[in-house]
Amino acid sequence: MMNAVISTDQLTMRFRGCDALMGLNLNVRPGTVFALLGENGAGKTTLIRILTGFQKPTSGSARVCEFNPLTQPLEVRRRVGYVSDNPTLYDWMSVGQIGWFTASFYPDGFLQNYRESILRYEIPEDRKIRVLSKGQRAKVALSLALAHDPELLILDEPTSGLDPMVRREFLESMIGRAASGRTVFLSSHQISEVERVADTIGILHNGAMQACESLNDLKGSMTELTISMDDSLVTLPELPVPAVAMLEEHRGRQRQVIVRNFEPSMISAIEEAPGVVAVRMRSMTLEEIFIAHTRRGFGDRSSPPGPMFDLADGGEPNGGSSGDAVIASGESR
């Protein structure tokens, strides 16, 4: 995508004994809140370090705001605001001093924007950084990150350890950010928070992107089926096209199957299959979808990297099989 704010091409990062990223392809459109979900160790922070020019990838490439963060890091940082889960601030400075100091690296208008933000958050400029609460420090870090009005705001677990009210204020401000045409890239494993603010969702597991599409499309395309059989050894019938069985678990005579592109009209065709006693379907929450994509077997590292994930068209996850979970044969993608 020519106008992608973030784009990666077969991005790979290998450390000794660890593949942090495996051929990652990603496009993030402008004016959206993109949420990257993943467990600790999934590769989220490694990706962010590459996007901000602090980590050289093993192979592949990335572009941020149409610049290469490896060869043009200053151009990228001029256009990006970044807030981590534990912002590094000079504790001996006051709130006002750190704004004045940071303003020296940016064009005119930075300090005025910073002061307006601090005033809005009701944090006194003469208060020392070292005496601020974690929530206040997060607000100072966000004010610093936004004062130059960046095209892209990157948040790496920004609400970790914050109280619920501060988290809500912090995240809801991101919606207004995207509404103004700017882009927010939010890395988190807090599913409920992400669901309130994100336009699009990417699920990263074991260094590979398992799903990447709009929140509504992702939730609308996933269904959990509970199929009761008259014999625990009976083979599960094939699903009608275009439904695809992504993950299957056996529980005695019941099969729990996570299915993509399932329609209620398909239930009758399954019920008519030999050995089927009853079929129940249920929509899945984002948390359940996330768990399904990150369970053993679903995101097997041995699976080859998937195709380009384009937020305009959505993507399909890779599959694998191991442990108690069984990927439906022939449906691994």
Automatic annotation (TrEMBL):
Coiled coil: none
Keyword line: ATP-binding, Nucleotide-binding
All residue ranges annotated as the ABC transporter domain in the record: 6-231
Organism, as annotated: Aporhodopirellula rubra
Pfam families: ABC_tran
Gene3D superfamilies assigned to the protein according to its UniProt record, in alphabetical order: P-loop containing nucleotide triphosphate hydrolases
Protein name listed in UniProt: ABC-2 type transport system ATP-binding protein
Gene Ontology MF terms: ATP binding; ATP hydrolysis activity
Lineage: Bacteria, Pseudomonadati, Planctomycetota, Planctomycetia, Pirellulales
Region of interest (Disordered), ranges: 296-333
